[in-house]
């Protein structure tokens, strides 16, 4: 790490020297950006192959001063418009003024993405399908946190897995959460501990957009990218702006006296220096959600939550071809489920409570070479300190503390040629996790009437270190209508478990990837791909969550001989997009997927011991498993005022041999699910938005105390659910600002689980369907640039 920091300091010093040399320049470039005669504000204007750039102002005008004379390619980019490039020749002391007319890109086909091949490329030219969840989707669906917005992407489904604390996960293409790699600004620092509740920890106001790649991504991103990759890209400071918003929701409206409030406040602000040589953005978020009891048994179905987030992103340009970026954010979150919320955890009948202190920091240095080659060196880390309590029946022995640290470093070089591109790099990811149960003092009265104090020491549950070193490369070549991508990654990992004193788990994994893009017509594309992936035998998110009731407790552990799990994934898609003469736009994507899991991880559960503890032992299945299906995605924009989007997934997930309950099918995995959104701008100031999600039937295990043999459980099939929502917004234009007033309802018809288990002996894992009942909300936003 010290060597890396020294290298960064050296690079910054060199960059400052370059900056000093760049100060003797004199040309100026100015202009105006329009679309059909209308000025376009806040458009990104940059000079290709350099860090020189700015944004247009409210009138669509821009100006860049102190440019070294020469030939340059000017790039113009803005969400909703096709990228534009123009070559200019700047002479000494020249003030060149250009006018640029952008074309609309209603379907977002030419938006720039980075996740598909670790390089900036237009979506239409990427050899993998890249789906984007942007701020428009977050706003339309009234998504306060990331977890709420992920349902509105094909192949994704967010689920709640615990009736007590709200442990949630994302399923992609039918595979549970640990099969998807979560990235923050393309870095794999979202650890297993962060994954337990992490997607609900992250507020949407810190996110610029989310890029989703379905299908194996281990060739570029390493372990756990079997189902796909979800890349969270944080907001960049691009112009002087500010925004503050407040939302208040009422959960369970119409369900008696059990309505719970969910209040949140957020703000964003950014400042950019002269000539955009530096900039900083800050953001903050506070949320307070009360517990919700759906069945009047005094135990919560939705946990209480208190979240405070502060963060910043900044950059400084070290000359015309070098830039350093810094990221930092800190999240404090407390959540608790169970009952008796006004007493300490150990005085409640059931309490599952966690308190997270999560800190993330990152630094990236970028340097351009030749015309467009880009060299980057990066380091990022995430530290989590979590206090927890998973206990029942006034137990004092169930307090715990978990510390987790993840650190990722690496270098990458993107070389661009006339018809091809090469991306290569190395990275190292280190993580350390220590999980312990906290000691306590117990008082009792002896037979002689004396007060006896018994002390119990701290107990280490897990003490794991993991290090993965990877080398990766991908070569893309364009051949007329074909584009071929060949990628590969070699990882060597080591997992140490000091507490269990087991042999170290080591492995060398080669993950190839082949993608082929064929332009059947300019608006009709076909893609096929193969990719290999793997999961190392490490501690996963579900291992760090304990299901608790008055009758039993469920823990998850790895078998001593657990081996890595590997996968072979195949995908094929047809993507048709058309703009008609009446300016309507139509897009249809049909995507088939097939994933074969080798040595898949499965659970073997034990009978309850004397203390009611059930152990789920993770082992390798003797045979494999197969996940296959089709994703359908429809985009239709009949006119600029109406946008319709829908996605639907049909799939099956089965083991080759029967597992729990003598069943081959995956549990908690519906064979069909989908979403839709409809945005109608009724006037310049009024907007009406309809949303919906569909969840098909699924198999759900039940271990309730009312069964004849609770320890054996039974397998039940859930109902299907259609969750519909409606939102109305009114925007009031002020002199230099805007005020947006919004209100609406989620889950209008209260399509929600009706057979929750109840009482102290309930099965908290028996939960399925939409994450919230009928919810009414109101919101206000004020700022000079409303997202």
From TrEMBL:
Topology of the protein relative to the lipid bilayer: Multi-pass membrane protein
Protein name: Outer membrane receptor for ferrienterochelin and colicins
Any Pfam family the entry gives: CarbopepD_reg_2
Lineage: Bacteria, Pseudomonadati, Bacteroidota, Flavobacteriia, Flavobacteriales
Major location category of this protein: membrane
Organism field: Lutibacter oricola
Signal peptide (residue range): 1-20
Compartment(s) where it occurs, according to its Swiss-Prot or TrEMBL record: Cell outer membrane
One example of a Gene Ontology biological process annotation: siderophore transmembrane transport
TonB-dependent receptor plug domain span: 125-229
PANTHER family: TONB-DEPENDENT OUTER MEMBRANE RECEPTOR, TONB-DEPENDENT RECEPTOR
């Amino acid at each position: 790490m010290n060597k890396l920091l020294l290298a960064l300091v050296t690079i910054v010093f060199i960059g400052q020297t370059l900056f000093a040399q760049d100060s003797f320049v004199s040309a100026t470039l100015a202009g105006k950006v329009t679309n059909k005669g209308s000025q376009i504000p806040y458009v990104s204007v940059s000079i290709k192959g350099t860090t020189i750039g700015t944004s247009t102002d409210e009138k669509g005008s821009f100006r860049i001063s102190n440019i070294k004379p020469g030939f340059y390619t000017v790039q113009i980019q803005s969400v909703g418009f096709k990228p534009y490039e123009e070559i200019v020749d700047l002479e000494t002391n020249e003030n060149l003024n250009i006018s640029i007319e952008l074309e609309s890109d209603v379907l977002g086909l030419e938006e720039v993405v980075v996740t598909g091949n670790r390089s900036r490329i237009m979506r239409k030219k990427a050899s993998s399908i890249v789906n984007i969840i942007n701020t428009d989707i977050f706003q339309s669906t009234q998504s306060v946190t990331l977890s709420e917005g992920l349902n509105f992407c094909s192949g994704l489904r967010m689920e709640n897995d615990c009736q007590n604390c709200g442990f949630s996960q994302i399923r992609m293409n039918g595979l549970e959460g640990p099969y998807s790699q979560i990235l923050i600004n393309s870095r794999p620092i979202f650890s297993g501990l962060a994954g337990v509740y992490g997607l609900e920890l992250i507020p949407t106001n810190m996110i610029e957009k989310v890029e989703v790649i379905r299908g194996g991504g281990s060739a570029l991103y390493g372990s756990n990218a079997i189902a796909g990759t979800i890349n969270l890209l944080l907001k960049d400071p691009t112009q002087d702006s500010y925004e503050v918003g407040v939302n208040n929701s009422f959960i369970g409206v119409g369900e008696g006296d059990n309505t719970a409030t969910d209040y949140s406040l957020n703000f964003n602000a950014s400042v950019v220096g002269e000539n955009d040589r530096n900039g900083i953005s800050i953001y903050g978020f506070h949320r307070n959600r009360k517990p919700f009891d759906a069945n009047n048994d005094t135990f919560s179905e939705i946990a209480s939550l208190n979240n405070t987030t502060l963060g910043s992103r900044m950059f400084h340009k070290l000359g015309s071809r070098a830039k350093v970026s810094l990221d930092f954010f800190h999240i404090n979150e407390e959540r608790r489920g169970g009952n008796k919320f006004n007493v300490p955890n150990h005085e409640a009948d059931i309490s599952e409570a966690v308190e997270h202190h999560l800190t993330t920091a990152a630094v990236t240095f970028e340097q351009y070479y030749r015309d467009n080659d880009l060299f980057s060196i990066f380091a990022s880390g995430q530290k989590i300190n979590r206090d927890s309590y998973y206990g029942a029946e006034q137990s004092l022995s169930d307090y715990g503390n978990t510390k987790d640290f993840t650190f990722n470093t690496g270098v990458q070089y993107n070389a661009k040629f006339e018809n091809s591109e090469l991306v290569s790099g190395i990275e190292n990811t280190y993580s350390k996790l220590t999980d312990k149960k906290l000691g306590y003092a117990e008082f009792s009265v002896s037979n002689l009437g004396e007060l006896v104090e018994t002390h119990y020491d701290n107990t280490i549950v897990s003490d794991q270190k993991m290090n993965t070193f990877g080398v990766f490369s991908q070569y893309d070549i364009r051949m007329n209508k074909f584009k071929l991508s060949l990628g590969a990654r070699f990882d060597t990992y080591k997992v140490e478990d000091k507490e269990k004193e087991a042999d170290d788990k080591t492995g060398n994994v080669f993950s190839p990837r082949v993608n082929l893009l064929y332009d059947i017509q300019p608006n009709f594309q076909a893609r096929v791909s193969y990719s290999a992936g793997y999961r190392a035998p490490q501690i996963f998110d579900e291992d760090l969550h304990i299901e608790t009731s008055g009758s039993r407790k469920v823990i998850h552990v790895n078998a001593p001989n657990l081996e890595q799990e590997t996968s072979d994934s195949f995908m094929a898609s047809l993507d048709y997009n058309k703009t008609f003469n009446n300016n309507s736009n139509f897009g249809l994507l049909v995507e088939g997927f097939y994933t074969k899991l080798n040595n898949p991880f499965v659970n073997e559960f034990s009978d309850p011991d004397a203390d009611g503890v059930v152990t789920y032992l993770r082992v390798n299945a003797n045979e494999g498993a197969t996940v296959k299906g089709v994703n359908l995605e429809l985009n239709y924009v009949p006119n600029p005022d109406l946008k319709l989007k829908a996605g639907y997934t049909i799939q099956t997930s089965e083991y080759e041999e029967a597992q729990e309950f003598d069943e081959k099918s995956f549990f908690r995995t519906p064979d069909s699910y989908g979403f839709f959104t409809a945005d109608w701008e009724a006037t310049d100031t009024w907007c009406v938005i309809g949303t919906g999600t569909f969840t098909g039937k699924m198999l759900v295990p039940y271990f309730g105390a009312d069964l004849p043999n609770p320890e054996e459980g039974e397998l039940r099939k859930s109902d299907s659910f259609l969750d519909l929502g409606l939102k109305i917004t009114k925007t009031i234009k002020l002199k230099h600002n805007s005020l947006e007033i919004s209100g609406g309802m989620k889950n209008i018809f209260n399509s929600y689980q009706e057979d929750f288990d109840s009482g102290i002996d309930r099965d908290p894992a028996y939960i399925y369907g939409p994450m919230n009942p009928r919810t009414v909300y109101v919101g206000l936003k004020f700022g000079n640039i409303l997202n």
